[in-house]
Amino acid sequence: MFLRILRKLLIGIGVLWGAVTLTFLAINTAGGDPALTILGGDDAAVTKAALDQVRIDYGLDKPILEQYFNYLGKIARGDFGESYRLHIPVTKAIGQQIGSTLQLAIPASIVTFVLAVVIALATARRAPWIRSLASNTELVLSSMPSFLIGIALLLLFSFAIPIFPASGSESWKSLILPSFAIALPVSSVLAQVLRNDIEEILELPFILTSRTRGMGDASVRILHALRHALIPLITLSGFIIAGLLGGTVVVETLFSRPGVGRLLSDSVSVKDVPIVLGVTTLSALVYVTVNVLVDISYAIVDPRIRISR
Fold first, then answer.
1. Does this model's pTM top 0.85?
2. 174: helix, coil or strand?
3. Do residues 200 and 223 make contact, with C-beta atoms less than 8 angstroms apart?
């Protein structure tokens, strides 16, 4: 198990390096001048002398390859630089927004897993029309982007029936619609996977034995079928949780919420390279951390995995 986790960590380092490298190349080859962002002006309002001085001060006058290795060296020391737009350290800029993102991502994760488990348990091996209705609904929801679901929720529950606020982050009610906008497409995918696994498990001999001993249907599904279906659920959930940080970009913008996603969106539009690279690195780090935790959780859910690996 230790060697497996170590291997995951080494792969994770490669993921971090790849994410930083690809983002660095994409941002620096997309056109535009970061020096203009730093000065907060445009070509008409900024002098050439000022632009040249900023490029020297920030190392933007150096070849792209040298800038890349300089940046990797800074990351290795925990220095992500200073935001071109906000003129504060990247770590501080992200730190100011991470709380709002977690405030949304955590409820969205909880709603995702509760919906997936409840729907899968309720529809597995039921009447064909129930299973068909659930499958078709899940297919539609999983195919829809979060912003379309968010718009539909806004139209229904903020304008037609004004139950929840349409924007802001002042109260717990403001979390309901964005949480469901993120959770609905994701939980649809999880429910499909989990239901298929539960249906296969419900066909196994030990389930029949449990029923003949007088155990009720709900107990069989929750205590036996769900427990044995947790491994694939945990595997898929790891990827989904790791992607929630980036998945909040559109939802935070749609619902006018602060957060890392909105910070990233605003920074990309003005080519604030340090912020974009910092958020990308954070997202990759979350991905690596979650996947290591998923591996550890395997051994907790099923000790046989620890023995075999």
1. no
2. helix
3. no
**Residue 248: other Cβ atoms inside 10 A:** 27
The Cα–Cα gap between 194 and 201 comes to 11
Cα(242)–Cα(261) distance, integer angstroms: 14
Rounded Cα distance between 133 and 55, Å, is 59
Angle at CA 183, nearest 5°, toward 181 and 189? 125
Alpha helices by DSSP H, 202-272: 205-212, 217-219, 226-228, 230-254, 260-269
Q: How many CB atoms lie within 10 A of CB 87?
A: 10
Whether 244 contacts 155, CB under 8 Å: no
Determine the Cα angle at 216 with ends 210 and 221, to 5°: 75
Alpha helices in 48-204 (DSSP H): 48-57, 64-76, 90-123, 128-143, 146-154, 173-201
Quick: pLDDT tens for 113-165: 889 889 988 888 888 898 889 989 988 988 887 888 889 999 999 888 888 88
159 Cα distance to chain centroid:
28
Q: What letter would DSSP give residue 82?
A: B
Q: Which of 246, 286, 238 is nearest to 264 (CA)?
A: 246
Beta partners for residue 82, in sequence order: 89
For each of the domains in the chain, give its residue range(s) and CATH number, in order of start. 93-269 (1.10.3720.10)
Task: Please give the backbone phi and psi of residue 285, each rounded to the nearest 5 degrees, phi first.
Answer: -65, -40
Q: How far apart are CA 106 and CA 109, in angstroms?
A: 5
The token duo for 43 is: 């070509």
Q: How far is CA 4 from the centre of its chain?
A: 24
